[in-house]
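hiii so um. not sure if this is the right channel but i have a protein structure encoded as tokens and i wanna go backwards to a sequence. like what aa goes where. can anyone help
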């Protein structure tokens, strides 16, 4: 799949998942910065999903996800709406961190076995190092 084809698939994929507001713009920014093979893997995997957390106090949440396949781990990324309003660098880091979990199937990365540290390391490699929330 060539780079132009990937770029043309990203916007409809994100719009369907997150709408066309600020969070979608931020998610697209991060996805466009990822290595081509990572994006191609996400878009080709019917188990990969990005969804908006729709938590409502007193009502709970409903998030529709694809069931993970046996042995592949979760490929679902759930983003909180407040990522549209917080500092952009922090939002990019969180989005990249969550995408790193999906790419790594919540596993390790190289010698890093802790899934949280692994996701941080991969997000940093992609250019989205850990940023404190402001």
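sure thing!! here u go:
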């Amino acid at each position: 799949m060539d780079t132009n084809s990937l770029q043309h698939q990203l916007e409809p994929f994100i719009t369907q998942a997150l709408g066309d507001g600020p969070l979608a713009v931020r998610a697209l920014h991060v996805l466009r910065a990822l290595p081509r093979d990572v994006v191609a893997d996400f878009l080709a995997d019917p188990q990969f999903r990005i969804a908006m957390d729709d938590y409502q106090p007193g009502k709970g949440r409903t998030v529709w996800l694809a069931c993970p396949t046996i042995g592949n781990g979760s490929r679902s990324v759930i983003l909180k709406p407040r990522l549209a309003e917080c500092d952009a660098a922090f939002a990019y880091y969180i989005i990249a961190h969550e995408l790193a979990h999906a790419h790594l199937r919540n596993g390790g990365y190289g010698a890093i076995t802790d899934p949280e540290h692994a996701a941080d390391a991969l997000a940093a490699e992609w250019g989205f190092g850990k940023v404190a929330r402001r």
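oh and The chain has a mean pLDDT of 87.
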